[in-house]
Amino acid sequence: MGVDRVKLGTVEHQESAVFSEQTWTFAQHGLPPLTGTVQGISGRLRYGTPLGILNVGRLLDPGLGYRIAFHGPDSAGFEFARLKGLGSRYSLRIHDERISPMLALAAIIRYNRRMDLNPKAAAIEHFRLHSLD
């Protein structure tokens, strides 16, 4: 939702059990739907090798990063990337000025909550939960 409490659109992500394939869709009011595709070596390893069958592709993200580009008819779209490293850091590039930055950030938030493997945050949470008072 925007600051005026109006729904801007939706970001959908589905992952199939077969080869762990992903389908990303981005729908913003006033624009044609955009389809997201995984880019780069992480995507090729995740879907073009037995790693897809084992569903361990997200283990590669801290070392290789993860990039997805959203495109559609009549729109250059946008892309985001999870940068390499133990912490969850992202970059966002919007190629179509009609795209709401808030809705593009919703795609990153969806990735972060559903798919990101963040060893640094997991270690901090572990010690927070098991610290001696």
Helix and strand layout, with pairings?
Layout: E1 9-15, E2 22-28, E3 34-39, H1 40-48, H2 51-54, H3 61-64, E4 66-72, E5 75-82, E6 90-94, H4 101-114, H5 119-129
Antiparallel strand pairs: 1-2, 2-3, 3-4, 4-5, 5-6
What report would you give on this structure?
The chain has helices at 40-48, 51-54, 61-64, 101-114, 119-129, and strands spanning 9-15, 22-28, 34-39, 66-72, 75-82, 90-94. The chain has a six-stranded antiparallel sheet. It contains five helices and six strands. A hairpin with a 6-residue loop joins strand 1 and strand 2. The chain has one domain (9-129). With 133 residues, it is an alpha+beta fold.
Tags for this model:
alpha+beta; 133 residues; six-stranded antiparallel β-sheet; 5 helices
Poorly predicted runs of 5 or more residues: none
Question: How big a fraction of the residues is strand?
Answer: 25-35%
Average pLDDT reading: 76
Rg (CA only): 16 Å
Tertiary shape = globular
Helical segment count: 5
> Going across the major beta sheet, what is the strand order?
1-2-3-4-5-6
Please tell me the total number of domains: 1
Helical residues, percent = 25-40%
Helix/strand-derived category reads alpha+beta
What is the N-to-C order of secondary-structure elements (H for helix, E for strand)? EEEHHHEEEHH
State the end-to-end CA separation.
40 Å
Count of extended strands: 6
